[in-house]
Amino acid sequence: MDSLRRRLTGELVEPADPRYAELTAGFNAAITATPAAVVEARDPQDVVEAVTFAAGAGIPVAVQATGHGIADSLDGALLINTRRLDECVVHADGWARVGAGVRWQQVLDAAAPHGLAPLSGSAPGVGVVGYTTGGGLGPVGRTYGWASDRVRAAEIVTGDGVLRRVTAETEPDLFWAVRGGKGAVGIVTAMEFDLVRQERLYAGALYFAGADAATVLHRWREWSAGLPAEATTSVALLQLPPLPGVPEPLAGRFSVAVRFAWTGDPATGEATLAPLRAVATPLIDAVQVIPYAAIGMIHADPVDPMPVHETSDLLRELPAEAVDALLGVAGPDAGSPQVIVELRQLGGAFAVPGEHPSALDHRDAAFSLITIGVLVPPVAGAVAPHAEEVSAALKPWSTGATLPNLGAAVGAERIARSYRPETLARLVEVARRFDPSGVFTVGQVPVR
Description:
Blueprint: H1 2-6, E1 11-13, H2 20-24, E2 37-40, H3 44-57, E3 61-64, E4 78-81, E5 88-91, E6 95-99, H4 104-111, E7 116-117, H5 128-133, H6 141-144, E8 151-157, E9 163-166, H7 172-178, E10 187-194, E11 196-197, E12 200-209, H8 213-224, E13 231-239, E14 254-262, H9 266-277, E15 284-285, E16 288-291, E17 308-315, H10 320-330, E18 340-345, E19 367-374, H11 380-394, H12 412-418, H13 421-434
Parallel strand pairs: 2-4, 3-4
Antiparallel strand pairs: 1-2, 5-6, 6-10, 7-11, 8-9, 8-10, 12-14, 12-15, 12-16, 13-14, 13-18, 17-19, 18-19
Helix pairs in contact: 8-10, 10-11
C-alpha cells in the first residue's frame, strides 16, 4: 500500500485511519463496507494509479461517490472514492460536463439560470454518474426518456489502467456498455450529457388518507392509462414514521401519494390531474408550478442514511386484479412493514430507443414496482419476507426483470434480471477485453 500511496495526489486511507468510516459509509446504513483500503481520488490519474496497482496486486476494485450504490461489504477490495472529482460546468447551448463526485442538485442549480434542466432522478442528492450509468429513471422520463440516452461522452478508467474518452465514434463498445452497464467496464471520472429546455413544471404530489387507498389506486390505474407523454406519474403506499420533517397529516399513519409531473402548459396539466384531485379529499395537495430545480419535492425522498431493505420488479401490465392483489398484501389493512410500496408508470419516451444503442434493457416494461422497508425494531425481521410476498402477489403480471438502479443488490440472479442474455453476453465480452486482470469483480454489477 505504501507504494500506491506515494503515487497518489489524493489520500490512501486504511482501516485504522479515523477517516475510514467516513469514506466507506453508504446511504444504506444496513450495509457496512469493509474494503482493505480507500483511495480518495483527487484527479483521474489517481483512479488510474489505483486501478493499475489493484490489477498488479490481484485486488478487486470498487467505486463510490455519494454512497447510494453500495450494495455489499466489498470485503478485501480497494475502494476508490470519487467524491472529490467535483467539476460541474453547464454550457448555455444545452449541455453539461460533470465529474464523478457531482450530485444532481449541483447540476440543477447550475442549469437553471440558462433555462436548462438535466434528467435527474427523484432524489437530487444522488450522484450523477452512478444514476446515469444505470439508465436513469426520472420524474419527467415519460417526456424526455432515460438519462443515459442523453450522454455525449464519458471519461472512464478501464481495468487495464487506461483513461479513455468514450464516445459513439471513438469507443463504440465502451460507449454502449457504460450507458446502462453501471460499473461493469470501468470507473467513470467525468461525463458529458445533453440538457433539456425546461424552466418550470406543473408538479408535486397529492396525499390521500389510507381509507381511500383502494379508490385512489384503482382510479390512478384507469387515469394513467390515457396519459400523454407530457405526464409522468407514480403512486406510493406510505407508512411514514413520526419523525421531524414528516408532515403531521402523514406522520405515523398509512397514506397514499400520487406523484405527478407535467412538462407542458400548466393549465393543461391542472386539467389533466383534475380527475385524481376529485377522487377523494387530499390530506395534502402539493401540486403546483415549481422551478425545475425543485424537482426533488415531487417524491420528497429521504435525505439521511438509514438501514433499509429494497426490492424491485417490472410489470408488463396493471389490470384491476393486480391492484387488488397489491392492496391485499400492502394496503392499509394488510399489516405491511414496508415504509414505501411504489408503482411508477413507464411507457412514453421510456419505451423509445435512444439515438445510439446501449446496454439498458427492458424499455418495454409498463410499470416498475419498488418496496422499501426500514430495518429497525419491531419490524426489522418482517421486512424482507414481506417484500417477497409483495413480489409474489404481483408475479402474474411481472416480466421477471428489473432495472440496474432499482434496489441496489448484487449476485448472479440480480444481474440476470437486469439484462437480457444477449446484452449480458456482450457486457461480459467487453468487460473481459478491457479488464484482463478482472479487477472489477465486486460491487453492484460484476458481470463476470
